[in-house]
From TrEMBL:
One Pfam family, short name: VitK2_biosynth
Assigned protein family: Belongs to the MqnA/MqnD family. MqnA subfamily.
Function (record text): Catalyzes the dehydration of chorismate into 3-[(1-carboxyvinyl)oxy]benzoate, a step in the biosynthesis of menaquinone (MK, vitamin K2).
Protein name per its UniProtKB record: Chorismate dehydratase
Catalysed reactions listed for this entry: chorismate = 3-[(1-carboxyvinyl)-oxy]benzoate + H2O
BP GO annotations: menaquinone biosynthetic process
UniProt pathway: Quinol/quinone metabolism; menaquinone biosynthesis
Amino acid sequence: MPAKLNQLNKIKVGIVNYLNTKPLIYGIQQAAVASRLLLIEDYPANVARMLVEGTIDVGLVPVAVIPHLKEHQIITDYCIGCTGPVASVAIFSEVPIEKIEKVLLDYQSRTSVALAKVLLRKYWKIAPELVDTRSDYRASIKGTTAGVVIGDRALEQRKVSPYIYDLGEAWINFTRLPFVFAAWVSNKPLPQDFITDFNAANKEGLLHIDRAVAENPFPVFDLHAYYTQHISYELTPEKKMGLQQFLAFVMEEKGILNRMA
Ligand SMILES: C=C(O[C@@H]1C=C(C(=O)O)C=C[C@H]1O)C(=O)O
């Protein structure tokens, strides 16, 4: 069937299905490059898995997955990053950080879970029990059990938990560098003209933040502020330094775990 063949030729692009990607999705869907790609939306850990397994060609993936890729290329000048409090990635708790005994780790996340581990060990210097989750666990964030929550659910959790330890802000206080949560990473070389057009489509989306705000009513949090003051989309040289530092810490953390095993 021609339609199916047509789909097979398309570049498969995975993207996180949270509100913070709406400006980028708007730009991509408005651009001519949209006809060359198939957009697949899922939560970050699943987009990461698809890129590792090769079911997509490029994805806005959690940067923590980069060391797991046989081949990788960062293909745009845009990312999901922050230069101050990010608002949608935090350790949420009913008690102050030094009283936390257990931390539930968000099954949707790869980067923020790794970031929480780095910061608990090196910045807060505490060693609570860390527990992986598989499905919604937010009701269990109570007493001395805290939780890492990311994305839209974190914006909601801000209304629930009295203590909010913003992981973007903590990273910056610790390293003096901005942070990159996710970047556009390909697992194979892609045509240069596609990369150029795809980059331009991202840029165009960010010029129309107001469209993304208008199309996504979200009474819980001011999305204009979220897109312009919390999420920082430009992958600057400073953010690349933050990314390198983070990946070095992640490798170090892995070494510590291997020695403990
Ligand atoms: C800032 C955020 O960054 C997200 C956090 C990710 C992670 O922890 O693995 C992955 C993708 C990003 O979209 C967020 O979604 O709240």
